[in-house]
Amino acid sequence: xxxxxxxxxxxxxxxxxxxVSHPQRVDVVIDGEKIGVVPNSDHWAAWWISDKAVSxxxxxxxxxxxxxxxxxxxxxxxxxxxxYQQSSLQPSYLQAAVEC
Length: 100
What we know:
alpha+beta, five-stranded antiparallel beta sheet, 3 helices, globular
């Protein structure tokens, strides 16, 4: 079971490890919140970043518009659909489809 958990963290597209080390990752600050943004093979992704050791994720209803703006800023395209990936180890991991 531990090996499975490690493999899930180790670098599959959309995993925590893949996002943190993604070569095209861009971190932007929108309204005081730091958002990580990456392009993936079939979607853009954004998640909230805290520089603190312990922090509370802002309400997703507040965070989602900021993440959409961050994706639009980085991709230079318009987000047409965006949903949180419920199974993600990153609770604020937003997947978005864009239209350029």
